[in-house]
Amino acid sequence: MRKRNFAGIVIAAIMAWTMSSVPAFAQSLIRDAEIEGILRDFTDPILEAANLRPNDVDVLIINDPTLNAFVARGQNIHLHTGLILAAESPSQLIGVIAHETGHIEGGHNARRQRDLEIASRPAYVSIGLGLLAIAAGAPDAGAALIASSQQFAYLNFASHTRPQEASADQAALRYMAATGRSPAGLLEFFENFRDIQFSNNAERYRYFYTHPLASDRIESLRNGAERSGLMNVPDSEEDIYKLRMMQAKLYGFLMAPVYVQREYPESDQSVPARYARAISAFQSDSLASALSLTEDLITEEPENPYFYELKGQILFENGRFQESIEPNRIALQYAGRSPLLMVNLARSLSSVGQPEDLAEAEDLLSLATALEPGNAFAWHELAIVMERQGRRAEANLATAEQAFHYGDCNRAMSFASRAAEELEHNTSSGIRASDITRICSISAQRRPR
Fold it and tell me: Which of 122, 212, 260, 434 could lock onto 152 through a cystine, CB 3.0 to 4.6 A?
């Protein structure tokens, strides 16, 4: 029993280093049409160079200030906001994405569980010696040995994953070359942080727990980068602009106004700086300033959908529902088939609540959930629209879908059962209600008791 308890402690500690699954999934995911679009622009050519289908790989944004990226839950690339904000150039961020793609192509995640088990063994020895020391009357020495078990585990884990990291590095070089991008960014990124895993700030740079650096690895990467002949290829002005806009948006929404003003002072009249200040004004309830700054941005870039999206959000969240419809409609018009922008417009229409508005909102949300079946928030909004139209059974089904995609099977089964009682059994809605009930029932039976 004791051995199992110790194993749990050590494995939990190492899991925080591997794919960061424990801390990352405790954080919130960010959904934003503009940022997701930019990241797809950066990522899809890399995936294609790796012979992967972009539609099979999700790029997820985690609201976490630490510098981290990892692959988990199949072929999903997770990027912390801290990593995006730390990137000094598009090629740095794209280089990290290329490295993570190398892990997908190499199937490395499947091997890491075995690496974890092997890495934990020296830690057990250290813990055991520490307990013996405490029992022998040397509590300080025992505590030191137990504390060191984590470092032993990390060093051992690093030794087992170095070949995977080197393989992902070389794969990243191939992808960058295939897409005509300079590998200098990836090399710069690693060189900037090569010693960070041993510093007092290591928690802030969690990426280097999972991707241990070594001098020979850096040297091998440098040699490969120089052989590519692409080291001096600059990032395009368009990509630099996209990165700066993405960073400005994250900074405006996530940072306190005092930090936004420090990073983007009034003297900086660039579009990204004014974008950050407009968002910050909105966040600090300076409605007139936020609208004025946003209108200036729209005047400068009248076909940028995301400036209209911001205006629509400002108006909607200040209770001006009718006024928010037009900017949200224009945003969707310029962006095309964006499920997130469809939801924005549908919310404005639903809040106004006229029959024709509810009918349009239903159409938008039905399309959004067809394009993104896992979008739980869209299902939530669809449930509201159905309820406002007096269609209780369909509202219950939409709520069941929302709960199902959140992973709350008990709630999903409850609402799906209610929906199934009222819906025609042979219709698509009736069949879906029965399917959710059956799937969740089977899931409940398989769950350990």
Answer: 122
